């Protein structure tokens, strides 16, 4: 395991304060924030697969669907085939998305894994509109909090989930962010 992987794993269960680490669990995404009726945002991993990246119109449509559904893009990364063996047919893009109930909402937008089912039961879903086969079905999304944390750590080893919940999540939840169209992510307004 690389030092970045170790840091990412340790960061999931430790908080940072004054340069020292303190044991801390990330907050449950279902806990109501104090003094506010807005629920704490949940993080999920979203992957746009090579079959969608290869077609700029499809990639743009999927990206716009993410934004139209009010997902906040916390991080994004472009991957090439040498980095991700199981998707070696071409480049892909990974996102960390934030939203109330992000995992379920992203899975709903993607639609069923089986493309034939997506086309018949949810034709407006991403997979219903753009999926080719069950493997080349355009997107991937985490199916639970545990897999989201594991997949985020794999694709973004430098990203610290607990730090994001402590430092950035309140800003994202309260709308103190803006979309940077050049970087294609949402960024916190720092004063």
Q: How would you describe what is shown here?
A:
The chain is an alpha+beta fold. The chain has a single domain, classed as Nucleoside diphosphate kinase-like domain (Alpha-Beta Plaits), CATH 3.30.70.141. It contains eight helices and eight strands, in the order αβββααββαααβααββ. It has a four-stranded antiparallel sheet with strand order 4-5-3-6, with helices on both faces. The protein has a two-stranded antiparallel ribbon with strand order 1-2. Strands 7-8 form a two-stranded antiparallel sheet. Helix 1 runs antiparallel to helix 7. The longest helix is centred in the N-terminal third of the chain and has 13 residues. The radius of gyration is 17 Å and the shape is globular. The N and C termini lie far apart (38 Å). The relative contact order is 0.20. It comes from Geotrypetes seraphini. It catalyses: a 2'-deoxyribonucleoside 5'-diphosphate + ATP = a 2'-deoxyribonucleoside 5'-triphosphate + ADP. Keywords: ATP-binding, Kinase, Magnesium, Metal-binding, Nucleotide metabolism, Nucleotide-binding, Transferase.
Record keyword descriptors for this entry.
191 residues; Alpha-Beta Plaits; disordered N terminus; two-stranded antiparallel sheet; alpha+beta
CATH architecture: 2-Layer Sandwich
Query: Any idea of the CATH topology?
Result: Alpha-Beta Plaits
Q: What count of domains describes the coordinates?
A: 1
- Fraction of helical residues: 25-40%
Topology as a string of helices (H) and strands (E): HEEEHHEEHHHEHHEE
């Amino acid at each position: 395991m690389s030092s970045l992987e170790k840091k990412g794993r340790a960061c999931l269960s430790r908080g940072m304060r004054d340069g020292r680490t303190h044991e801390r669990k990330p907050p449950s995404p279902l806990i109501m924030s104090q003094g506010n009726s807005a629920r704490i945002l949940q993080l999920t991993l979203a992957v746009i697969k090579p079959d969608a990246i290869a077609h700029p119109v499809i990639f743009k449509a999927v990206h716009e669907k993410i934004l139209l559904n009010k997902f906040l893009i916390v991080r994004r990364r472009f991957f090439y085939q040498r980095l991700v063996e199981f998707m070696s047919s071409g480049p892909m893009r990974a996102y960390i998305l934030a939203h109330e109930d992000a995992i379920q909402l992203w899975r709903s937008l993607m639609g069923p894994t089986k493309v034939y089912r997506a086309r018949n039961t949810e034709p407006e879903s991403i997979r219903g509109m753009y999926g080719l086969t069950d493997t080349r079905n355009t997107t991937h999304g985490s199916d639970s909090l545990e897999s989201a944390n594991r997949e985020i750590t794999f694709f973004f080893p430098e990203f610290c989930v607990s730090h994001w919940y402590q430092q950035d999540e309140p800003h994202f939840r309260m709308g103190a962010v803006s979309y940077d169209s050049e970087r294609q992510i949402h960024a916190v307004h720092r004063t």
